């Protein structure tokens, strides 16, 4: 089976004044379809940078980044934008929903950006939201939702364009344990059902139970 | 459109405030423009309604019609030439009235059969000893059949009718018969100015033949009227400043709103939105707000012009409204450039608080 995402000897350095900071030294790993992988590690270990590179938000300084077998390490800004739109779904620490869109419109926005036909999209949006138990919230604005509900909308949004890869950056940070577990349970379920791949950066060890594999980063390298 | 409209709807109060300010500024722009145009017309409506683009004036008159005397030589040259032209006499004077205040008027004499003869709205063409006066003189209580006395010549005239759009230097024009004009100057017909019928070509043709006179354009003739430039200049300055203020106010408002939303723009970029969508959304919002407030301002200005008192010189032509609207939209776009720049520069990583 081919890896969905493959990082090969990825290195990332930042220049800070006249100092050069190596955040990722040499990171290699593969993620396969249907796999839900957790990334753990102390603060400053490079987790977020790694996730940003995997999510085509940052380019690696060196090394290869294969998405579906294609190297996107040197992709242009425009190419990376299209990859983010079509192939990657992001879930952030806080839901980061747009305050002026209703729950359903948050999802419809994604299909508008990818210029997809509206009719299929509406059905999919409603199905996703129903699966995540948000059927009754379709036409409400984020301000009326609870934290858990907002995060579930963010998950639905990440799924909306049917990405190959879901990237979650501490998705439970703003939720209490019970809600957090519920959200992750649903995320894991979706990954399995649809044979997608997902990476979750987390500090919360209780969430690791839902993951197939745990990768530990320490000082910019897989340990 | 999707994002722009949804956001305008959600943030009604915020955007209504912006639109409110834009409405007030554009209303003021339109109002002052109308006033400037009205004053310009009111100042020298006689020249503007003549439909003449060029005038022959004495070289030494410094573009002032009332100061000009075209030499006999030049008059003869033009008369003998092939270009159609109408000479006329013009000077400022005052009407003396018993038991009432005196009235400033401009006295003009022109062939009543010429193309630049005044339009009579009441009464008839004057014969010797009679005069036609601009309708505004009625506000002074002067009626057809009344006899008025010219201060300069001490001659008496019977009012034979009223004209429209015949003012010069904000004073009503009294048209007198050519014979009376002659009598005032010991039998000689003094020609202040000659209006040239035709375009640039004719004007140039006439210009070449003149010795003591020059050909000036309508705009130069208007600018030569004492006070005209100062009046228009200060109003123009107000209008220019209003546009600048509009640009700054818009820029400030949208900049603050954009800064507040940087996080949202960053998220949008992170989830794969192209910058063009974000920029378009911002521009659509600016355009919608401008269009709405501008439409409202035009309606209110036109409404206000209906209920304005007669005497207030206010004139707003369709062209003027179109130009103002275009300029205002342009101002709005210029005002949003700073925000557009900011949107284009948003870093998706910073917005989601990741990396580094």
From TrEMBL, chain A:
Coiled coil: none annotated. It is found in: Cell membrane. InterPro entries: AAA+_ATPase, ABC_transporter-like_ATP-bd, ABC_transporter-like_CS, ABC_transpr_LolD-like, MacB-like_ATP-bd, P-loop_NTPase. It is a peripheral membrane protein. Gene3D superfamilies: P-loop containing nucleotide triphosphate hydrolases. PROSITE patterns: ABC_TRANSPORTER_1, ABC_TRANSPORTER_2. It holds the Pfam family ABC_tran. Its main location: membrane. Keywords: ATP-binding, Cell membrane, Membrane, Nucleotide-binding, Transport. One of its GO terms (molecular function) is ATP binding. Residues 5-223 form the ABC transporter domain. Belongs to the ABC transporter superfamily. HrtA family. The complex is composed of two ATP-binding proteins (HrtA), two transmembrane proteins (HrtB) and a solute-binding protein. Part of the ABC transporter complex hrt involved in hemin import. Responsible for energy coupling to the transport system. This is Putative hemin import ATP-binding protein HrtA. The lineage of its organism: Bacteria, Bacillati, Bacillota, Bacilli, Bacillales.
Automatic annotation (TrEMBL), chain B:
It holds the Pfam family FtsX. Residues 237-346 form the ABC3 transporter permease C-terminal domain. Keywords: Cell membrane, Membrane, Transmembrane, Transmembrane helix, Transport. Signal peptide: none annotated. It is found in: Cell membrane. The keyword Iron does not apply. It is a multi-pass membrane protein. InterPro entries: ABC-4/HrtB_transporter, ABC3_permease_C. The chain crosses the membrane at residues 15-36, 235-257, 277-300, 320-341. Belongs to the ABC-4 integral membrane protein family. HrtB subfamily. The complex is composed of two ATP-binding proteins (HrtA), two transmembrane proteins (HrtB) and a solute-binding protein. Part of the ABC transporter complex hrt involved in hemin import. Responsible for the translocation of the substrate across the membrane. This is Putative hemin transport system permease protein HrtB. It comes from Geomicrobium sediminis.
């Amino acid at each position: 089976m081919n890896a969905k995402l493959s990082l090969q000897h990825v290195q990332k350095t930042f220049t800070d004044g006249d100092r050069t900071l190596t955040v990722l030294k040499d990171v290699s790993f593969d993620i396969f379809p249907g796999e839900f992988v957790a990334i753990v590690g102390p603060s400053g270990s490079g987790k977020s940078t790694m996730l940003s590179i995997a999510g085509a938000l940052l380019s690696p300084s060196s090394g290869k980044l294969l998405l579906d077998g294609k190297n996107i390490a040197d992709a242009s800004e425009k190419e990376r934008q299209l990859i983010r739109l079509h192939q990657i779904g992001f879930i952030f620490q806080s839901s980061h929903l747009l305050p002026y869109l209703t729950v359903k419109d948050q999802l419809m926005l994604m299909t508008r950006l990818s210029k997809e036909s509206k009719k299929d999209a509406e059905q999919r949006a409603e199905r996703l939201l129903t699966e995540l138990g948000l059927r009754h919230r379709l036409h409400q604005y984020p301000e009326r939702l609870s934290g858990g509900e907002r995060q579930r909308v963010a998950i639905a949004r990440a799924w909306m364009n049917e990405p190959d890869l879901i990237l979650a950056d501490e998705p439970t940070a703003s939720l209490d344990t019970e809600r957090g577990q519920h959200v992750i349970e649903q995320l894991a379920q979706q990954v399995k059902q649809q044979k997608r791949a997902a990476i979750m950066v987390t500090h919360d060890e209780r969430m690791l139970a839902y993951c197939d594999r745990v990768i530990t980063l320490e000082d910019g390298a897989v340990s | 459109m999707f994002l722009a409209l949804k956001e305008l709807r959600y943030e009604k109060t915020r955007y209504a405030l912006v639109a409110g300010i834009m409405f007030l500024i554009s209303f003021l722009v339109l109002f002052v423009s109308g006033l400037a145009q009205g004053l310009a017309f009111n100042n020298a409506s006689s020249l503007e309604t003549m439909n003449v683009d060029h005038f022959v004036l004495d070289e030494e008159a410094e573009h002032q019609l009332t100061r000009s005397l075209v030499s006999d030589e030049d008059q003869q040259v033009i008369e003998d030439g092939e270009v159609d032209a109408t000479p006329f006499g013009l000077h400022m004077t005052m009407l003396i009235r018993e038991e009432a205040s005196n009235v400033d008027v401009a006295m003009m004499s022109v062939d009543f059969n010429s193309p630049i003869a005044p339009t009579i709205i009441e009464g008839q063409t004057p014969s010797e000893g009679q005069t036609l006066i601009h309708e505004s003189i009625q506000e002074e209580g002067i009626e057809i059949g009344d006899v008025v006395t010219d201060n300069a010549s001490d001659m008496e005239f019977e009012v034979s009718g009223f004209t429209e759009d015949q003012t010069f230097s904000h004073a009503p024009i009294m048209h007198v018969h050519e014979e009376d004009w002659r009598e005032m100057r010991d039998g000689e017909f003094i020609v202040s100015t000659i209006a040239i019928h035709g375009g640039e070509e004719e004007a140039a043709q006439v210009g070449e033949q003149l010795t003591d006179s020059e050909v000036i354009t309508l705009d130069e003739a208007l600018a030569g009227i004492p006070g005209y430039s100062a009046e228009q200049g200060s109003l123009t300055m107000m209008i220019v400043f209003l546009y600048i203020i509009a640009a700054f106010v818009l820029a400030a408002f949208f900049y603050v709103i954009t800064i507040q939303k940087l996080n949202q723009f960053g998220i949008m970029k992170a989830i794969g939105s192209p910058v063009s969508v974000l920029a378009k959304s911002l521009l659509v919002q600016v355009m919608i707000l401008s269009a709405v407030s501008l439409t409202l301002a035009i309606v209110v200005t036109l409404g206000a012009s209906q209920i304005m008192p007669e005497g207030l010189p206010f004139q707003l032509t369709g062209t003027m409204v179109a130009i103002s609207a275009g300029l205002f939209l342009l101002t709005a776009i210029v005002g949003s450039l700073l925000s557009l720049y900011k949107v284009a520069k948003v870093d998706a990583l910073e917005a989601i608080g990741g990396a580094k």
